[in-house]
Specification:
Helices cover 42% and strands 14% of the residues. By secondary structure, the protein is an alpha+beta fold. α6 (165-175) packs antiparallel against α7 (182-198).
Length: 214
């Protein structure tokens, strides 16, 4: 899994000036007052100035992770690789650790299962069989849009994910919570790393510095 930054627009100063335009004022460069303004905007829910800053990522993750993250819609745009058009050999995700089922919840995970080899072998066999059958269908002339039906959720996919800084902060505030699925936390951590470097003041304010040291 990986997240590459493709493009970005604006800076912390963009956020400041989007707010200061209300008073017909402009800051030429960041200073202490501007940093305080950013914190004030985030603390009091004035999200619109942060919506003038945009980031674009290319994300690579398994299908089951993508289907969780695509639920984040507001302020974000998503374009994904389509198996209707792509018929190359699929790539599959293999976890390094198999987690246990929690006893006090219907979702999530808890610890690790004692037998790590059995689920590992089952997944390897499943992926191999799906890979073999998919290629057979393609070689026999089956349309990719139908052949893809046998590919499992472990198949890797890629997508462009673009949106405002405020929208991505909301993604990270939710998906970096320790109660969320570990694999989605990995993607959120990549996004956090990129955004914290590009927009240090705005990102720290939007995430309330919860993840500033990760």
């Amino acid at each position: 899994m990986n997240v590459d930054i493709i493009d970005h627009l604006g800076s912390d100063l963009t956020v400041v000036n989007a707010a200061r335009v209300s008073f017909a004022k402009t800051s030429k460069e960041m200073d202490g007052k501007d940093e305080k303004l950013i914190k004030y905007l985030a603390t009091h829910g004035h999200w619109s100035p942060f919506a003038h800053v945009f980031v674009q990522f290319r994300v690579k993750a398994p299908i089951f992770v993508a289907r969780q993250l695509v639920k984040h819609q507001v302020g974000l745009t998503w374009n994904e690789v389509s198996r209707r058009y792509v018929d190359g050999s699929p790539e599959f995700y293999n976890p390094t650790v198999w987690r246990g089922r929690p006893t006090d919840s219907k979702q999530g995970s808890d610890g690790e299962v004692a037998d790590q080899s059995t689920p590992k072998k089952i997944l390897e066999q499943t992926n191999l069989l799906a890979f073999k059958h998919y290629n057979t269908l393609i070689k026999n002339g089956v349309a990719p849009e139908q052949a893809r039906m046998i590919l499992p959720q472990t198949m890797m996919t890629e997508w462009y994910w673009s949106g405002s800084l405020q929208a991505f902060a909301r993604v990270c505030n939710q998906r970096l919570d320790p109660h969320t699925q570990k694999e989605t936390q990995v993607i959120a951590a990549f996004i956090h790393k990129h955004c914290s470097k590009l927009y240090p003041h705005s990102w720290a304010a939007l995430t309330q510095e919860t993840f500033a040291d990760e």
